[in-house]
Write a structure and sequence with these properties.
A: alpha/beta; Ubiquitin-like (UB roll); 4-stranded parallel sheet; 11 strands; B: 542 residues; alpha+beta; Rossmann fold; 5-stranded mixed sheet; 25% helix; binds flavin mononucleotide; binds iron/sulfur cluster; binds FE2/S2 (inorganic) cluster
Chain lengths: 427, 542
């Protein structure tokens, strides 16, 4: 456990959320440095670091910023995505609650890079404590002149507003977030246009995840090549992994990108609980395809390796299932969530997620038909790639992969009207 | 861009759907509507673009000269079939009792892309029917959530009475808190709803739509001149629908026009000619007896002629008359009576113009053709025309010996004319739809036809000349004003060449009214023609 924590370096310190604690560790030097550089220089450092978005898609952050039109002198916006609602994901919350100034520091740098003078932190409605903490931290930063007019004596103005969502998963999707910030239903937008061209209130907008923005100050402080030296090629920097499920020590672990899955589970998360064995892992929050225990063995947890394994690192919500887990039930559990959270705007997701959940429900309860696995796969295929936003694909990926990889459990359910684990399968 | 092997020029801002429409290739869709913003949510309009692994929605895919598009490939048909299955999961399939049946996109697409059996075994979840507006019911379970209605109410009318509530499978259209869909354009949502979800209470269960006969015409309730379809069964109008005309009303019409047809079917319409028997007491209404149309015409012609000889004849022309009728009236006065005392009936205004968010305007003027009648009378008789007040003042003072008053107001009681002046006229001939206060004082009363019962043209407030069509027969002996006027003209020795049909009258009119020069009924077609630049203020169309 020799990794020198970067993002969580202040977590556990007394008063870690206070501005003086943050300043004592050299905080806000990144923001100071940024406003005396040119925006292009800041974008270049971040591009060179190889930082990829931590919100789910792993999109290169510097590249995202460079899509903001440069010759447009009008209002631009930066939105911090703190909606963290992906099942199995609880990393941003640690940063928000324990080191809010790291985020504000990162937001100043990022806003400067895209020349946005207004920024919002869109925080999940249920995170009451974090919202209070953030509001306090923003007020502290204003009091010191780090936010507001002419910050750090430069010509750059920046206002940050903390905006609380109402608890809809879909408002974490970046255009759902933008709609919600505008005061509308959180219905994702069709693209084009993309937010970098027409985002919040029709203006160029960047949406970045909390963890992404928190990676930015260390990059400015310690350099792009330092950051790039952590992790694996093309997958650089430190990463917060959220381990949940059937392990002895669930929690958030900060490790270099590309840390092997089994190292994370065995060395950090304390191994599978109750002396049982590993059955399956969903590695990137519930929207990622499931991996069987053998598939987990040599897997480095980074964007590219997970992609190659036909799943994704996503939000790095590592959901661990032991050999007592009914995979039919697991599939239902996941699909119920998506059916409940589908915004209902587009047809395949609105109708399809509920239909799949209904079929899985009858399967779990011993009323399934022999044809159900194929029907489920066919309906999943009809949803996939045909919806407005990635929620639908995220709903399909875990369920379709569970059916493909654990099909015998479905057959068992149909044949014996019960689960092969002997779990109650009462109608 | 190539679509199904055919080339189409790509303009800036054009989508693949636009390209398909240009080529006349129909791509099934629910949420797309040319008058609304792109929602891109029904996912039915998918097409295949060569080189892209997934089907793309044509309505929001920017056209590109490099694209090769297929609208009926295997990939497309599979995707469409899948989408149809989703649409039908919870759909009640109550076509036998659904008014939309026969003009329902869901039915049509199911016929082409649906399957005959369902893979959905889990019982349908019922959704309660809702009363969402004065004339509008929402059969919630039939809704495909295309949001055309909510986008219309947001973008076009700007009134936002409906919205979407709940999420996912439980999403449904509801009234916004405290609001009912009662705005003057609300009826349009029943038209643009692609399925039988939003239904008109007025038309509810009146007829299967395939029994309706549809006649293209023009609205008669304000000078916007919205293009309409008059839909009839037998000799009754059952509903009015807007007809698209991008130069006039766009895709829409207002509810005054939509439901204004009822006067046509009204059993109190005049069905025969009558004359007054005996004198009227100071305030009373004289007794009447029925006479034949021929006798009535003869009396009118004689009375007008003898009053003209004494130099004291006049007419009041109705803004509900067609251009052809105004022309015949003007020619009667010019050619036969040698008088130019023809006034235009004072307009019968509603309170104010009502202008909606996207510009659609319902005018305060309740009559359709003030502009055309004035154009024609002025061109033939020379302007300025006398006002109706001046003519009535002549009547009051006893100077007027005979007055031909064409009223033809669909609103039986709706007149601003001070009828006491009419009592002083020795001979009052009235043409009207109802036995209103003006008709009651007439010496001879002729029953008129409504706009739905005659051929002719109206000129809208912007100078757009458009054709009316004969959709139903007049009740009893009622006749279009042009027929009555032709008979009077004939008896007074007029030029018979202009009399035969309204089309001939119009062709002649076009030689006399400079701005109409060269127009014919045929040239007007179903879309009409603009005769002059629009006057300020701004246009009515959407
Ligand atoms: C259904 C859905 C939910 C999402 N929820 C979140 C979220 O809670 N937090 C987040 O940062 N990104 C979330 N995302 C990803 C965002 O759309 C977006 O890609 C991300 O915020 C970009 O930040 P990054 O470039 O810093 O990764 C979600 C995406 C989808 C489709
Ligand atoms: S995919 Fe689902 S969540 Fe996304 S826009 Fe469509 S209905 Fe809404
Ligand atoms: S009521 Fe009709 S127009 Fe409105 S969303 Fe439903 S289907 Fe579309
Ligand atoms: S706006 Fe005028 S012309 Fe159009 S439908 Fe209404 S009353 Fe008729
Ligand atoms: S018409 Fe294109 S998605 Fe509905």
């Amino acid at each position: 456990m020799g990794f020198d924590r970067v993002l969580t370096r202040n977590v556990g310190k007394p008063d870690s959320r206070k501005i003086d604690t943050y300043l004592a560790g050299g905080g806000y030097s990144a923001a100071r440095k940024a406003v005396t550089s040119t925006p292009d220089e800041v974008v270049k450092i971040v591009s060179d670091s190889g930082l990829r978005g931590r919100g789910g898609a792993g999109f290169p952050t510097g590249k995202k910023w460079s899509f903001i039109p440069k010759n447009d002198t009008g209002q631009k916006f930066l939105c911090c995505n703190a909606d963290e609602s992906e099942p199995g994901t609880f990393k941003d919350r640690v940063l928000l609650e324990h080191d809010p100034h790291l985020l504000i520091d990162g937001m100043i740098v990022s806003a400067y890079a895209i020349q946005a003078t207004r920024a919002f932190i869109y925080i999940r409605g249920e995170m009451h404590a974090a919202a209070k903490i953030l509001e306090g931290a923003v007020a502290e930063a204003y009091a010191r002149g780090f936010l507001g007019k002419k910050i750090f004596g430069s010509a750059f103005d920046l206002d940050i507003t903390v905006y609380r969502g109402a608890g809809a998963y879909i408002c974490g999707e970046e255009t759902g977030l933008i709609e919600s910030l505008e005061g509308k239903r959180g219905w994702p937008r069709i693209k084009p246009p993309f937010p970098a061209i027409k985002g919040l209130f029709g203006r160029p907008t960047v949406v970045n995840n909390v963890e992404t923005l928190c990676c930015v100050p260390p990059i400015l402080e310690r350099g792009a090549s330092w950051f790039a030296s952590i992790g694996t090629p093309n997958n650089t920097g430190p990463k917060l992994y959220c381990v949940s499920g059937h392990v002895n020590r669930p929690g958030v672990y900060e490790l270099p990108l590309g840390t092997p899955m089994m190292e994370l589970l065995d060395q950090y998360a304390g191994g599978i609980w109750k002396g049982r064995t590993l059955k399956a892992v969903i590695p990137g929050g519930s929207s990622a395809a499931v991996l069987t225990a053998p598939e987990c063995q040599a897997l480095p947890l980074d964007f590219d390796s997970c992609g190659k394994a036909h799943t994704m690192l996503g939000s790095a919500g590592v959901i661990v299932m032991d050999d007592h887990t009914c995979m039919v039930d697991a599939a239902l559990n996941v699909m119920r969530f998506y059916a409940h959270e589908s915004c209902g705007q587009c047809t395949p997701c609105r109708e399809g997620t509920t239909w799949v959940a209904k079929i899985l429900n009858r399967d779990v309860h011993g009323q399934g038909l022999e044809t159900d696995p194929d029907l489920l796969l066919d309906v999943c295929r009809n949803i996939e790639g045909r919806a407005i936003c990635p929620l639908a694909d995220g709903a399909v990926a875990p369920v379709a992969s569970i059916i493909r990889k654990f099909r015998s459990e479905f057959d068992h359910h149909v044949k014996h009207k019960s689960c092969d684990l002997g779990k109650a399968a009462v109608a | 861009m190539k679509i199904d092997g055919r080339d189409v020029a790509v303009d800036k801002g054009m989508t693949v759907m636009d390209g398909c429409r240009k080529l006349g290739i129909y791509v099934p869709h629910f949420c797309y509507h040319p008058a609304l913003s792109i929602a891109g949510s029904c996912r039915l309009c998918m097409v295949e673009v060569k080189g892209f692994p997934k089907p793309m929605i044509s309505c929001n895919t920017p056209a590109d000269a490099k694209y090769e598009v297929f609208t009926g490939s295997e990939m497309v048909v599979q995707a469409r079939k899948a989408m149809m299955e989703f649409f039908l999961l919870n759909h009640p399939l109550d076509c036998p009792v659904c008014d939309q049946a026969g003009e329902c996109d869901l039915q049509d697409f199911s016929f082409r892309y649906g399957r005959g059996f369902s893979r959905y075994d889990e019982g349908k979840e019922p959704r309660a029917k809702k009363d969402v507006g004065r004339d509008i019911l929402l059969y919630t379970q039939r809704c495909v959530l295309c949001t055309r209605c909510t986008r219309f109410l947001d973008e076009v009318s700007g009134t936002n009475e409906l919205t979407v509530a709940n999420r996912g499978f439980h999403s449904e259209i509801v009234n916004a808190p405290g609001k009912r869909a009662d705005n003057l354009m609300a009826g349009n949502i029943t038209d643009i709803c692609p399925v039988g979800a939003l239904e008109s209470k007025d038309f509810l269960f009146k007829s299967r739509v395939w029994y309706l006969h549809s006649t293209p015409s023009v609205c008669t309730h304000c000078p916007a001149g919205c293009n309409i379809k008059i839909q009839t069964k037998g000799n009754r109008i059952l509903r009015i629908k807007p007809r698209t005309n991008l130069d006039v009303n766009g895709y829409f019409m207002c509810d005054i026009g939509r439901f204004g047809y009822k006067f046509v079917n009204d059993s109190k319409r005049l069905t025969g000619a009558s004359r007054r028997v005996g004198a009227a007491s100071a305030n009373g209404v004289p007794a009447r007896s029925m006479i034949s149309i021929g006798d009535a015409i003869e009396t009118v012609a004689e009375s007008l002629a003898s009053a003209a000889a004494a130099g004291s004849v006049a007419a009041i022309a109705s803004p509900w008359m067609t251009n052809e009728e105004a022309y015949l009236l003007a020619r009667i006065f010019k050619d036969c009576l040698r008088s130019s005392r023809v006034a235009m009936l004072e307009k019968n205004d509603r309170a104010t113009d009502v202008r909606f968010k996207k510009g659609f305007t319902v005018y305060a003027d309740a009559a359709p053709n003030a502009r055309g009648v004035e154009d024609v009378l002025t061109a033939v008789l020379g302007g300025p025309l006398p006002t109706d007040a001046e003519v009535l003042a002549d009547a009051q003072s006893g100077r007027l010996k005979a007055l031909l008053f064409v009223n033809s107001n669909p609103d039986a009681a709706g007149t601003r004319v001070d009828v006491t002046a009419l009592r002083a006229i020795p001979f009052l001939a009235v043409v009207d739809l109802f036995a209103g206060p003006i008709a009651a004082l007439s010496h001879v009363l002729l029953p008129a036809a409504s706009a739905a019962e005659k051929i002719g043209t109206f000129t809208n407030v912007e100078g757009h000349v458009q054709r009316l069509a004969h959709a139903v027969e007049s009740p009893g002996q009622a006749h279009p004003e042009w027929k009555l006027l032709v008979e009077i003209y004939r008896r007074l020795g007029g030029n018979l060449a202009i009399c035969d049909r309204p089309a001939d009258t119009f062709a002649h009119l076009a030689t006399q009214v400079p701005s109409y020069s060269g127009l014919t009924h045929d040239a007007l077609g179903d879309g009409g023609r603009r005769v002059a630049a629009p006057p300020s203020p701004a246009p009515a169309g959407v």
